[in-house]
Specification:
The protein is mostly helical. The chain contains 5 helices and no strands.
């Protein structure tokens, strides 16, 4: 099988080489050929005349507008934990969120306050019945 493959491939010496194109000849005392510039059609003339001026060095891009701060993550957590019934953790998350929003800006103040109020309500809902039952 290997010999069949070897015999089908021609040896490198049998590959025909294309002839080289003839070299233009000029007598040694003749002047070098003069090249004429290519004639421009109406489309090339129009683009050459109306091409915008190149500015160098390139102008830098304008800076991006400042990014708007998003909703504070502690405010979202305070709302969820406060409504779910985690009075101590919800109140702590709400206080952290309120401090961060006042210091750094951002949104979520309403969620933080709602989480704080819900945490206080859960605290009262747990503490008041226990206190009443112990007193009576």
């Amino acid at each position: 099988m290997a010999e069949a493959i070897r015999s089908s491939v021609p040896p490198p010496a049998s590959v025909p080489v294309p002839p080289r194109p003839p070299v233009p000849w000029a007598p040694p005392d003749s002047p070098a050929p003069q090249h004429r510039p290519a004639q421009q059609g109406p489309a090339q003339q129009w683009t050459a005349q109306h091409r915008p001026a190149q500015q160098w060095p390139p102008q830098p891009l304008a800076p991006a507008p400042p990014r708007q701060p998003g909703v504070n993550g502690f405010a979202i957590a305070a709302l969820v934990v406060g409504l779910a019934g985690g009075p101590v953790v919800g109140a702590w998350l709400a206080s952290v969120a309120i401090r961060q929003i006042r210091a750094n800006g951002g949104t979520g103040m309403g969620m933080a306050v709602t989480g704080l109020v819900a945490s206080i309500a859960w605290t009262l809902a747990i503490v008041v019945p226990i206190t009443v039952s112990l007193v009576v």
